[in-house]
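Work package 3, deliverable 3.1, input record:
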Amino acid sequence: MNPRGRIQLVGGLLDLPIIDKDGRYCGIVDDMELEEAEGTLRVKGLLVGPGAYRGRLPGWAFHLIRWVAGARMARVPWDAIESIGGAVVLKVAAETCGLHRAEDKARRLIPHRGAM
Amino acid sequence: MNLLELTLGIMTAVGGFVDISELVFAAQAGSSYGYALIWVFALSTIGIMVLGEMSGRVAAVAKQPVFNLIRHRLGLKLGLVTLIASLISNLITCAAEIGGTAIILHLLTGAPMMLMAVAMMVVLIGTIWILPFKWIERAYGLLGLFMIVFAVALIKADPPWARIAAGFVPQIPSGLPSGELIRFAYFGVAIISAVMFPYEVYFYSSGGIEEEWGPKDLSINRLTCIVGFGLGSLLAISILSSSAALFAPLHVDPQLPGSAVLEAELPMGRVGLLLALLGVLFAVAGAAIETCLANAYSVAQFFGWEWGRHKKPWKTPRFTLTWIALFLLALAIVLTGIDVMKLVEFAVLFSVLVLPLTYLPLLLLASDRHFMREHRNGALANGLGWLYFAVIVAAAVAAVPLFLLTSGGQG
């Protein structure tokens, strides 16, 4: 067992971009959800969205971001991950994990014509 | 390698190199200190060649644009500080570019400057909405080639070539009083900042990903950076040298972009003036697009949104709303009536402060064996990269005291 190696994996995952199975950017690994099983900690999933900044930013900065961007947060289960490299690639579509809600909301605000 | 693609890429880099800050500081540096600041342009150009090439290589090999790296390498807290600082710096720069185009349009048409700023904004938003990335980049870069008139004007002005050549040797003019020495240092820092603006690497590396670069494109990347930025820098040096040859003897201080274009009129007449106005208009409008898109890229990459103008605007909705909002904010700044030259001064000041935080993650990843494999930095790229990192840290430390001591270069 190499606990240092595992800690490095967790550190290496934080702040990586997430790409879904269709090649779409759908968030950043903002935090991780851990669970205890058989005396060891395991990564249960990835937390994505400004709601996951709590604990990673000073309180005032977190409240400011929550005021600007809201506190939404999506969970990506560990078994939805296809590979981890320069980005976390999912084996599912963003919608499956609720990662495209804000993008869909913004899409309704702009016209869908006129571009080459 | 596609020769046409390579030529177009290089020409685009040449036409898109000069922006309003370089134009203004080159013209002022020439009129105030003759040819003595040419070496700072040359030094900074090698810096942007080295770091631009690195950002393009990282985009091609690791498929990582700069702000993804900043977030991953610096973490959320320091990354957020960098994001906010670069947003402010790029927004002010974008406002300065829009103000600059409004001045040029006012000179060309006689219409009120504020009306021209609004008209330019409509054109810029329309351009990005309608055209895909490659067309936007090529259109403004190639039209910016009108700036070559400044090099032609310099040749026609028959300047002292030996003194221009001597300007490439690092020097500090002798006999300057201490106040002028401090102003000389301020101009040095401002030129480093203007040539190595952070938005250039955000835009260049994101552009590499927009154009789907891969390892096969590394030669194009290298040649574009070395030849394109090198020739682009020669245009800036032409502006400085013409100013030294034509304005310095008359004690003219070209504080506005409109004054700099007279460098082409004096030796070439009205045709020179018109070509210079068009060159500055397209180069500065192109820079306005680059700064605005660079900001939208930064935000989208930091938060992991869909981004890029190789996709239709509604396929990247948050990115689209961001660049439109940033353009409108930049326009609002211009419409307050603030002096465009003040905006230019603040733009170079904020940018130099952001430079170290921009380039550190880039240097770290470009040397990373795991991500970059056989394309990681060699000894030369690493040596030059860290040398320039030291230069920009020194410039960042000196920037605020020099700005305050000289009242933004006013002496």
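Chain B touches chain A at residues 62-64, 68, 71-72, 75-77, 79-80, 129-132, 135, 300-307, 312-314, 317-318, 320-321, 371 (CB under 8 Å).
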